[in-house]
Structure formats: C-alpha cells, structure tokens
Amino acid sequence: MDNKHEAHEPRIVAFLCRWCSYAGADLAGVSRLTYPPNVVPMRVNCSGRVDADMVLSALEKGADGVLIGGCHPGDCHYVSGNYKTRRRIALLKQALSEVGLDPRRVHLEWISASEGIKFQETMTSYTELIRELGPSPVRATKEAVHG
Amino acid sequence: MSTPRIGVFVCHCGLNIERTVDTARVADALREMSGVAYVSNYDYMCSDPGQQLVSEAIRDHRLTGVVIAACSPAMHEPTFRRAAEDAGMNPYLVEMANIREHCSWVHLDREQATAKAIRIVRTMVEKVKGNHPLDPVKIDHVDKCLVIGAGITGIQAALDVAEAGYQVLLVEKEPSIGGHMAQLSETFPTLDCSQCILTPKMVEASRHPNIELLTYSEVLDVSGYVGNYNVTIRKNPTYVDAEKCNLCGDCEKVCPESVPSEFERGLTERKAIFIPFQQAVPSSYTLDEGSCLGLHPLRCSECAKVCEVGAIDFDMQPEILEEEVAAIIVATGFDLYPVLNLGEYGAGDIPDVVDGLQFERMLSASGPTGGHVRRPSDGKVPERVVFVQCAGSRDPENHNSYCSKICCMYTAKHALLYRHAVPDAEAVVFYIDVRAGGKGYEEFIQNATEHEQIRYLRGKVAKIYQDGDKVMLWGVDTLSGQKVEIEADLVVLAMSMDPHPSTEALTKILKISCGGEGFLKEAHPKLRPVESLTAGIYVAGAGQGPKDIPESVAQGSGAAAKAIALLSQDKLSHSPETAFIDETICGGCGVCVGMCPYTALSLTASGVAECNEVLCEGCGTCVSSCPTGAAQMKNQTDFQLREMIEVALADG
Fold first, then answer.
1. How confident is the model at residue A142 (pLDDT cuts 50, 70, 90)?
2. How many domains does chain A have?
3. Are B513 and A113 in contact (CB < 8 Å)?
C-alpha cells in the first residue's frame, strides 16, 4: 500500500433501504458480524429515494466513498424503486468518470434483510477498496479553491 | 422558526452498547452540538424508569425533538414514540439513532466505535431538527381476508377469521383442501387418526357462511396496500361441475389414462379424471388436463359418455377473479426435499426405499395397501424396516443445513406403528440426535425405545444400495465406533422439509421476503413470528419453517388474531411520512406522475402536481426524480438529508 494512504481513514456514507439493507445491517449486528467502522449508515425508505444530488452532495462534503444498499432485482418493496436507482447510478458513474473521479467511489449493492453476512462482506471489501483508492480528490480540490 | 431544543438519550443497553461504545463520551460530544438542549445516558432506556426519564425531560426541558441513541428502530421506535406521545410530544418528533446493531455489536475497537456512534447520533439530531409533527393518515378498509394455502394452518386461520365475523377467501392450488395432513395415518404423540381430526375442519371450512373456498386456484397478482389489497386469482378449470358431480366414480372406471397419484406419492396410479382422496373437499372429481388424452370430445370423451348427471364440461375456461382484501395470511406449507438430490441413498431409484410420506400412505387405512405395510417392489410384508433420520437435513456441506424438527417424532411413530402392524418384525432407526422437545414428546420416544423394542443406532447412513431383493445400508454406530452394514427389506427416509416450491414466486408477488433457506421470513424471529415486514401480510405454518401440527395450528390462529385485530379497526392508520409537493416551485412537468408506482401523484387543474397521501406509500421515488425539488418527503426532505450527510462526514 502507498505510504501516504496508510494514515488515511476512509469516510464513507451508506444510504440503506429500510426494507432490505438496513435490516440486513441489523441482522449483521444481531449475529455479531464485525466489519470496519468507517461507514456511517443512513436509513432511507427505498434505494429509489437516492438521487444523484444526494450522492454528489456526499462526495462534495468529503465522502471518500458512497454506498447504496437496495433490494435485489424483483424484490423492491415499492415495486421498482431499485431499478430506477440502478439506471440512475449507472449514469452517475459515467458522469463521474468523465470529470475524472474514480466511479468506484459510488457503489450500489443488493443486500436483502436476510443477508447479514453479505452486509458484513460488503462493508469490509468496500472500506478496503476505498482505502486503496485513497482520500477523495474532491475535498482537496475544494480546500485549494476555497482556501 | 423557533430554536430547536433537542433531547438526546444515550442508552447503555446493559453492556450491549457500553462494552464497545463509551456512552459518557457520546453524551459529552452531543452536549456540544448546536440545538441540543438536554443529554442523558442511562442503563436501560427502554425500561420503565428509562421511559420515565424521557417523558420527564420532554416536559421539564420543553424539548422540541428527541433522539434515542440505542437499538434499531425496528426494535424500540414504537416504544419511545408512545412514551413521547404520553408526555405530550408528537411521536414523529422522536427518532432512534442505531448505535447497537450498527455500531457496538459489529465493532471491536472502543475508540473507533465511540467515534462512529457520535457520528450516527449527530445525523439523527440533524434529522429531528427538521422533523415536523405529523398525524397518521386514516384510511378505510374492506372487511375481507385472503388466506393462501388450505392445509391445516390455512384452514385454522380461515376458520378463526370467519368465526370473528369477517369474510374469508381461502385459496388452494390443489383440487382439494387439507394439505399434507390429509396424507398422514396417525399423528404423534397421541396416535389419533389424522383424517379423523382433519376432515371435520375441512368440512367446516367448506360450509362456513363467511368462507369462500377457491380450490385449484392460484394467486397471480397482488397490488394495493394494507386494508385495500387488490388480488388477482386464477381459478383453473376442473372440467367437472362440482354441483352436479355425485362421486359415482363411473368416469374414473372408463378413463384410459393413468399417471402416478400425487396424493399417494406415486405408490399407486390415478386416472386423468380423479378425486385425490375420498374425503376431498370440495367433493368432486377433477379432470387433469395435463394427463387427459385431449379435451376435445372427438378425442376420447369416455368420461363424458358415462356421466349420468352430465357434470363433465370440456368447455370450462379458467376464470380470472379480481378481489379486494384488507389482510393476507400466507400459509403455503412445505414439500419434501427432492429425493433426486440424495444420490448416496439411491436418488429414488431403489423401489424399496421410500420417504416418510409414502410410509404414511402405507400405514393409512385409506392408503393403497389398506393400512398393511408391504414393499413396493414385490408386495411382501417387510421383516426388517430401517428408518433413516436426517435424510437431507443437518448436512450443510451437501444438503439442507437446518434440522427439519418433526422427523425424530414421526420416525418413532412410524417404527412403533410398523411394530404394531407386523408384531414379529424388527425396526431399526439411524439417528444423529433424538430431538423430542414438546408436550408428551419425550415420553413418546421413551416408550418407543424401552417398551416397543425399536433399535436405535446412533450414526449417519453413508450409503444405501440394492443387493438382490434386499436393500443394504452402510453406516457407522458412533457410540461403539463400529462400522455397521445392515440388510433391510424396506428403508424409510425421514426426508428434510423444504418450503413449498411455489413459495419463492409468491413472495415476489406479495413483496415479502424469504430467509436464506427459502422459508417465509417473519418480521421478528421471536416477537413478531407471524407477521411479515409488510403491513397486513401475515405468515404461518410450515412455509415459515419446519413445524409439526400443533405449532402450525397455533401459528394459523396467531396470524388470524393479527388479521382480526386489523379488520376490527374502524379505520386503519397509514404512516404520514409521505411525499408532498411544494406548489410554489412545482413546474408541472409531470415526471413524478409517471414515476409513482401507486398512482398517488397527479397534475391538478392549475398545472401543478399533487400527492394523494392515502395512496402514497412513502418510497420517495418522486422526490429523487423531481427536477425542481418541489416533491419532498415529510420528515425526510432533501434539506434534512444534506444536513445529515454534512455531520456524518464532518471532522472530529
């Protein structure tokens, strides 16, 4: 690992659908499955509530990574919110690449209410990935511009 | 807007939170936060004194909002919202900060966990600052309940709801109600005849004025919401008019087509026109179009020629029914684990290796052998029957990892009934453990092992194969450490229980979840065992997990009680956390109208969008698609979320 990244603790926010991923996180807790403490979870009613503005706002406010947890295809509690998010996030990732930001800083994962282990694995691997990517350039740029 | 005065209550949850999160430091950090007027930490916030503490602080410190930093909102959000309401605060001004399931239970480093807990609590303080008092939306509901699956669980649930005075629609996929219980011979631990206790209930369900029975029918689609679900059901054609059919059986005699009988589990055959069993409800023949030579009268029509009452109607069409119901009870039951998966036990190719349900049919007086135990291969009375428990259960590497729960009991019953039927015969049981938790169950096992001369061998059978006209079993007696090779005339596999194959597709229609093993998932494994996470949809019986008859009946009644509690309300409450439109900035583009899955949004005459809060389920899809930000969620606005993100990411 790059030395300059060693001291860096990734800051990640996760938007979790209350019906699946948030409950999956609860199950991980009940099952005492440990994972890194870098992710601050936020409950939303549906992954379909998450829009590009919200993700960009998180990146702008200094997130090194943004996770969105939704229901598996076909399982959305609100019929089709997850499909809308899938399309939205795909476009957003494309836009991020175009402005030179690594699209992996935004990640959408399907985690059901019974997938405590998948929640643990996702939190662990995503934190590791963001650690490898290093601090987000957005904050550094912002600080340079605004002083 | 007046200055917020938020109260933060940090719970230790005994040591559950305190062990990894320094709650005193969390409390200190929150005291510094702007808008926080009162902070307290306490051992068990959910206890009576804890709730008291919250109520008193609300009054004494004139709080405008409350954050309980404790467990998941799934756990105690209702508790604290009620406590706040008692103290005169609108319940929607109370939020939970989940520092247990999402923090103290999943992290080991106290320093890091404390820092994360502070971030989590701060985000919720930001949220509460933007919350508004809300009143639940009141909605009307219909007075009908749908029960899916008419095994013993569904029948019990339907009868209970009907007895309470509400209309019930009982839907069953098979031609008759009764489920697997109708196949059983006698039931443990009392050895009462299964059909004798089941059939009166079947008849009662069919005759109850409040129950509409739809057999040979499937649920195709469900939309709507609690209190007002719209259900589409297909009633498949039986090609026999149940009103006219008098069960004379003439049609069956002349029908030239035979297929293995599902009810007899292939031990015998049935005709293409058949009745699953004599006590079937509705008591009518069914023409199975899959096995019939052809429904066109020119093709065969032997049955129609001999039917004196003219009950056979080749032109019968599937019926599509649209129904409105307030609540849905899902009682889809189980099926046996596929024997094809058990290659080590012959994968169904050895005729004298049968499963537990086949053995039930052999023992049953109404079964194909009239209650006499005979080998399927040559009809001889078996002198030694070996029973193999945990066939496909408790084997995480190869098969199902879970215990199927009922097999220890029914295997003991099988062995005992076999010994009674063939007194000189030998019964041998292979087991891993004998699990007999239940009223009268251990005594039943004790009796079987001590007085009925049933030989119990502790160990798992590794291989079963045909050897001449015998069946050979290889295994290990783990108590003596000796290898065991045993010859049997008949082998009975206590097959693992799977959720019924239709479960997965149905859960997708209902938008409820399955657990990892494919069984219906309950809202809480201990405290909400018969509710799904979706309001108004309940789960019961072996479809939720392996269960015996008493437990299935109890769950059926439990789910019925939940449905009755809902049906008996004058109006239902709907969460007021719905979408709303800021008319001053809505441009009237109508994007939200097309995005809403519930048709809650529409454009008004004045060209702006409007949200019908009765129809709105609160997904927020409209909010994220609105180009101007006019569509917002009550108590979860974009502004609130941005403030929450800000503090979640702030330094320190």
1. confident
2. 1
3. yes
